[in-house]
Amino acid sequence: MIRACRDNAVPVFFITRSYAADGSDVERARRAVWEAGGKPLSPGCAKEISAKMPEAFGRDARDRQLVKPRYSAFFATGLDLILRRLGVRRLILIGTTTPNCIRTTCYDALSLDYEVTVLSDCTSSKIAEIQESNLRDMANVGAEIASSETLLQKLARP
To answer: CA-CA-CA-CA torsion for 79, 80, 83, 89, nearest 10 degrees?
Structure first.
């Protein structure tokens, strides 16, 4: 999907989440876990996740990377401003986790009047029931839920 977007001049954004090494920006819901030593998403964590991009994604000079402090890619970031300056009206959401980051980004995007497509096979949840429920909820509020194959076919059309 990433390659197909690049090949079709669709801007690619990598949005990662990271906390300060001292934990001063960890939200209330994760504060106790962070203080108890479970410090994912922060520098120095033995099992840091999300801040590093999988090599399979590749990197391209046209790609953009933003760091978000909460679930939504719009919360306390410049994403909306950048998208509007680029003339972007539709977002294609892929990533993890669907009930947290994907869903909150989807709802914020819809609230900001973007058209949203969530790729069902390029998002994930801990269990299938959670995934299905969240995809259904996002569809019910106006997001398009599609497979990557469907989107690849749309991108291939002139």
So the answer is: 130
